[in-house]
Write a structure and sequence with these properties.
By secondary structure, this protein is of the alpha+beta class. It has four domains: 233 residues, 3-Layer(aba) Sandwich (Rossmann fold), CATH 3.40.50; 98 residues, no CATH class; 92 residues, no CATH class; 58 residues, DNA Binding (I), subunit A, CATH 1.10.30. 31% of the residues lie in helices and 16% in strands. The chain has 18 helices and 18 strands. An eight-stranded mixed beta sheet has the order 5-4-3-2-6-7-12-8, with helices on both faces. β6, α7 and β7 form a beta-alpha-beta unit. It starts with a helix and ends with a helix.
């Protein structure tokens, strides 16, 4: 019941625009300490709290020298009352400007803080506020929840770094999710679960069971699903999520409306599955962009873009039953990045509950030794786990493969020797990165043809043409001047199927 009341408070705030939630000092301190190196010699702007009593301004002004800040700016929306809560009923607005301690006591004394008046209402979208924003390097604040997407769009438009607090559901907004997917915005370092207490205006209705009023009459509520959003990097977000589960179709059923398996809990992501997976939205708390790739969101157009089909009539009618058997469209869709699984498993072999992982690892190693018994340095760093998953059940002739590999290793046209192993298994020539014709070879062929395209017989300048193998590489043709012909771009791309 308490959780429902918390969520009801949040929806009430959004609907009535009563979303002036005031972040508590301990939450600010726990988050901002992760970015100390980013703040050095930077101008920081806090533009959505009463600047004279803002916890953001308080923390950053008292840590000005510790963080090595250059300047601190703060504005709010239309308030000149010396209290905690913004009622937006004052006639004049102000902004504060602080550029560090002057008297050596390392305390932001009132006489050291410049108080200046604004002509407008202090709205973050106003011309005055935007001019202050342009000065800033980093923005730190708690924007109104109802204007969160507009606020982030402005930060992106003006190419600002930021640390702001919002609700977890905000990442489902198409504008925000697009930034998450492109790894331009991510969640902060300190909040990964639970709820947080916020101060609220004095006229805010307290309906949640765990809301409170302190001795001074200040009101507080607890809000579930709160997260920091930032585009400042920190080392913890690049730590691998330890995976130990092995895929089996009984435990990981496929969705009825998308070709992906369902993973109920982030910790149960199978380490060996090569394909799309649907994971809970809270996966984002463990997201490492080097380990995983986010491809879509089921409850938005981002899901439809990757092929998630809308609910059918029977899905809508019996939604709960359908969800039980795997036709769900509310998950994040991800896949495991094509990293070196050997390196990953070796690094994490001593983690708790890693027995299954180690057995799988041994299976991969044994398969590689049998199929490719002649070790070469080019074998290091190949994603053997994925090749094992795809080809372990096929009958492969190790002697025939070794003969082909040896020939390709001696072929000077093969630029990517590491790709030979992928090529002999998949047959895809792209892995070899066949050497391109040099500019001299292209010029020789161009002059020989007098600028005439071999296919359409029309004349082109050399920069309008592309080099092509007369005898294809896979038929024994070499990347040499004698085997080079020049085609116009259209004909060359028609020939290569581009």
């Amino acid at each position: 019941m308490a959780t429902k009341a918390q969520n009801k408070n949040l929806h009430q705030a959004k609907n009535s625009k009563k979303d002036e939630f005031y972040t508590q000092l301990p939450d600010i301190e726990r988050e901002l300490k992760n970015y100390k190196d980013h703040f050095k010699d930077k101008i920081v702007y806090c533009n959505c709290d009463d600047p004279r009593v803002s916890n953001f301004f308080h923390y950053l002004s008292y840590n000005f020298e510790n963080f090595g800040l250059k300047k601190l700016l703060a504005t709010c929306y239309k308030n000149q009352e010396m209290d905690l809560f913004t009622l937006h009923n004052s006639e004049q607005t102000i902004y504060l400007e602080y550029d560090g301690d002057k008297n050596g006591n390392n305390v932001p004394d009132p006489e050291e803080i410049g108080i200046k008046h604004l002509k407008g209402d202090g709205d973050f979208r106003s011309k005055e506020s935007i001019e202050l924003l342009k000065q800033a390097d980093i923005v730190v604040t708690n924007p109104p929840f109802s204007l969160f997407r507009d606020y982030v769009n402005q930060l992106i438009e003006y190419e600002k770094q930021f640390i702001i607090i919002g609700n977890l559901n905000a990442l489902t907004y198409k504008e925000i999710f697009k930034l998450i997917k492109k790894n331009k915005v991510w969640l902060g370092a300190s909040i990964h679960s639970g709820d947080r207490e916020f101060g609220v205006p004095e006229d805010y209705p307290l309906t949640a069971a765990n809301s409170r009023i302190d001795k001074k009459g200040n009101k507080y509520i607890r809000v579930k699903g709160v997260r920091w959003y930032t585009n400042l990097d920190y080392k913890e977000r690049h730590e691998d999520l330890i995976l130990y589960k092995i895929y089996n179709p009984e435990e990981y059923p496929k969705y009825e409306n998308f070709d992906a398996i369902n993973v109920n809990k982030t910790k149960d992501i199978p380490l060996d599955y090569k394909g799309y997976m649907g994971v809970p939205i809270t996966f984002i708390d463990k997201y490492n962009p080097e380990q995983f790739e986010i491809i879509g969101l089921g409850i938005s157009n981002s899901g439809k873009e990757i092929g998630v089909e809308p609910y059918k009539v029977e899905h809508k009618k019996y939604r709960k039953e359908v969800q039980k058997r795997g036709a769900v469209d509310g998950d994040l869709y991800i896949w495991i990045s094509n990293d070196d699984i050997e390196q990953y498993m070796a690094k994490n072999q001593h983690e708790p509950n890693a027995n299954e992982l180690w057995l799988y690892f041994q299976g991969v190693i044994n398969w590689v030794k049998i199929v490719f018994p002649n070790y070469r340095k080019e074998m290091k760093g190949i994603a053997w786990g994925f090749l094992y998953n795809e080809f372990k059940d096929q009958k492969l002739d190790s002697k025939k493969l070794e003969k082909e590999i040896a020939e390709l290793m001696q072929d000077e046209d093969v630029s990517n020797k590491k790709g030979i192993y992928l090529y002999v298994l998949t047959g895809k020539e792209k892995h070899l990165n066949i050497r391109a014709f040099s500019d001299n070879q292209k010029r020789e062929a161009y002059e020989r043809q007098k600028g005439i395209c071999i296919e359409c017989k029309e004349h082109f300048e050399i920069n309008e043409m592309e080099a092509d193998h007369i005898t294809p590489w896979h038929d024994g043709g070499k990347t040499s001047a004698e085997n080079c012909q020049m085609l116009c771009r259209d004909d060359n791309r028609r020939k290569s199927g581009k």
